Amino acid sequence: MGRVVDYLLKELKSGPLHLTLIDPDKSPGTKAAEIAASAVELGSHAILLGGSTGISPEVMGAAATAIKARVPVPTIIFPEGPRSLTPAADAVFFMSLLNSRNLDLVIRAHAKAAPAIRKMHLEPLALGYLVIAPGMRVGEVGAVDAVERTDVEGAEGYALAAEFLGMRFVYLEAGSGAPAPVPAPMIRGVRSCLSVPLIVGGGIRSAADARGVLDAGAQILVTGTVTETEGIGPSFRGILAEVGRDRGH
Predict the structure, then answer these.
(1) Orientation angle between helical segments 234-246 and 207-216, nearest 10 degrees
(2) Where exactly are the structural domains of the chain?
(3) C-alpha closest to that of 182 among 170, 208, 167, 200
(4) Strand pairing partners for 130?
(5) In this structure, how many other beta carbons lie within 10 angstroms of the beta carbon of residue 12?
(6) Rounded to two decimals, what is the model's pTM?
(7) Which of 151, 169, 230, 248 is the most buried if burial means most Cβ atoms within 10 Å?
């Protein structure tokens, strides 16, 4: 497969994208591949692997191998740490947790992981990762000072700083299982100041949620909890239908 960043940027020219997040601890091996195949058939543009803490390289590798045998789109690691890496994937979100108090998650872990990423021939996708309240589990584990949902200027500052530092994507994360997505005014504000793609995840459980996030300016949607709780059901199909509508499908 060619460069994943080129694929994503090319696809973005036709409209917003959807990424399906699969936790290989909860959906290992062939089960992950089945979810991925169904998601791609409905229009998802790439598969993210990650989610829980402590995913072993063996579990990550088995899932990535099974998924790549079933789908033509990229398999991207959504890491929780250096042990999440496997050469079986195509790329890794090389992401700095911008508002963490733990410097390991801002840059130190990256310095340790970078040689391994190079050795595995994984494509690093530089990403500024910003946790928005309530933050949920990622906020706790990541030791973040979550950006309040009304602090649009604060989110804009973090996002613009990430772009100025050379990051190729900015990700606004409400947290897995959040009761609501990132607020529309914040998405609009961040999108208006960026020239790199804006990813939004957390709390997107329905077609209505997806429509609100898309209308606010999100360019890439990430969903994971909805498939874990309902499988490839009506909610997931509705989310993909909203993305497809904006792409003219």
Answers:
(1) 30
(2) 4-246
(3) 200
(4) 172
(5) 14
(6) 0.96
(7) 169
> For residue 157, is pLDDT > 80?
yes
1-21 pLDDT, tens digit per residue, is: 569 999 999 999 999 999 999
**Tokens 């091996």, residue?**
29
What type of residue sits at position 218? A
**Neighbouring C-alpha atoms within 13 Å toward the C-beta of 105:** 19
The pLDDT tens digits of the residues spanning 171-229 come to 999 998 899 999 999 999 999 999 999 999 999 999 999 999 999 999 999 999 888 78
The rounded distance, in Å, linking the Cα atoms of 10 and 46 is 13
Residue 218 three-state SS: coil
Bridge partner list, 47: 20, 75
- Interatomic CA distance for residues 184 and 174, integer angstroms: 12
